[in-house]
Amino acid sequence: MQCDSLASGFFRSAERFADRPALVVADQRLTYGQLAASALTVTSTIRRYAPDPDPLAAVLASRSVTAYAGVLGILASGRGYVPLNPRFPVERSRTMLRLSGASVLVVDSRSAPLLPTLLPGIDRALTIILPEIADCSDLASAFPRHRFVGSKPSSNGRDFIFSRYSDPAAVAYLLFTSGTTGEPKGVPISHANVRSYLRYVGARYDIDEGDRCSQAFELTFDLSLHDMFVCWERGACLFCVPEKSVMLPAKFIRDHELTVWFSVPSVAGVMARLALLHPHTLPSLRYSLFCGEPLRGTHAELWQQAASNSILENLYGPTEATIAISSYRWDARRSSSACVSDIVPIGRIFDGQQWCVVDERRHAVQKGEAGELWLAGSQVTRGYWNNPEKTREQFVQLPGRPGTIWYRTGDLVRCGADGCLHYLGRLDQQIKIRGYRVEIQEIEAVLRRICRTDHAVAVPYLGTSGAPEGVVAYVSGTEAVDHETALNACREVLPDYMIPRRLHWVAEIPLNANGKIDRARLTKGRGPT
Amino acid sequence: MEISAETDLLASGLLDSLGIVDLILFVEQRHGYKVDLIDVDPNEFSVVEGLCRIALSQNQGDAR
Fold first, then answer.
1. What is the reported pLDDT for A390?
2. Is A469 in contact with B25 (Cβ distance < 8 A)?
């Protein structure tokens, strides 16, 4: 049996709304017809030069037409896509490329200069697709193992059929999240998983071809899939938010009269701190959506006053459960009192998905008691990419209820009397920095390697709003590396939000009575700088 | 790294967006008036020269 593929909705819109605007990136505006043509150019190039039916192709691009055409073109070729972020350290991208097993790499012109540092160490022969082949002769002679090709339309027109239908279990995209072992871990999401999400939110949000939707998330963040595909399935226009405007988007929203805004809650926090959320200043918005980290009630209230014509929702969901799996609709009259410690509820799990809250013994808790949220259903992936050990750890069965595989989120929640879920924190050391998932142990593993010691501890550095803005780290038992060298080595492997704001060399890491690291004593009296 | 009036504090990686917020709040605190960025291009306030221009022009505007 086959299901609609992830990109099928876009291509249906491209037939229906060929002359309507689909994408605005900086000063480039593309209609649905033009974007589909760019995407199918990538597809025909893949089919011509990489005919082997590999399951995945990677795209190293950001905020460019090639980035979007690359995603759509890869999907139309019948492969799943693996987004790589040109802003991340090259070594991290190389690890992701290696772990994914992708043999095709689509690169935009701005990211092409990264290739000479990315390619050494890649043993597998790659087909690298660039918008302009003219500049590639040096690369081709330096890296004879790989094939460099320019993205060109098929010479005899539409000589292929793009993949409108897919095996439901085939991977639609593979994302990497921070991993506790020091290496990012891959989360494959199938066409059936993402179709299930799009079916639910397609009915929940009333988007049509008159809408103007934001695209603020990096492609390596799964919320970008919501931006792209919810918008394109309905024939609306997607506005790529320039990097500089992402955290302070007021002018961008007003200039482009956006009707849908979707970002991490930190954006509302930053706008609130700068007192930019005056009542009715964002009148064009019909939907204000937040996801990726806890949303503060005070920020939601201010945003709702500024975007007074919009429906404001707080969404929640781990990457493993496809984009988002619960939602809470803000109600100006009642919601402030529904917040716990000024944190907006994460609301109700989407219809059709399964959830339960369990204690340490893996027994369901009574309603109103706190416990770990477990998820199952059509949106939940079957496990990590080529990582059976981690999969066995996180994807489990409930005692006495065989058959269903549950994903243990590690999120501590409580279900209120009204049936709404409240997020209370993490059960492990994972934190969110501007929506990015960060496993503290990954930073510690990197520091141990760089500083050649067994003793490295990272702790979140909390900003004025109480949310983590970064980490500071403590190292002991080594004098082998100096501060700047260690930080520079971190910059080579960790993205900016994971690099310690400050490294402290301490005589020893304090332990509490149970022999665990005493983080409170470690940080006492020490600021981030 | 040398910082001049034309240095783009965001693009150069010297500050992230939260750093820019702290800088703007610092300018407001030092000068005792609010800098309204609602209709200001981020390309302007991420450069020292631009931020000064915005802050000064808004102060004069308020004085009138």
1. 94
2. no
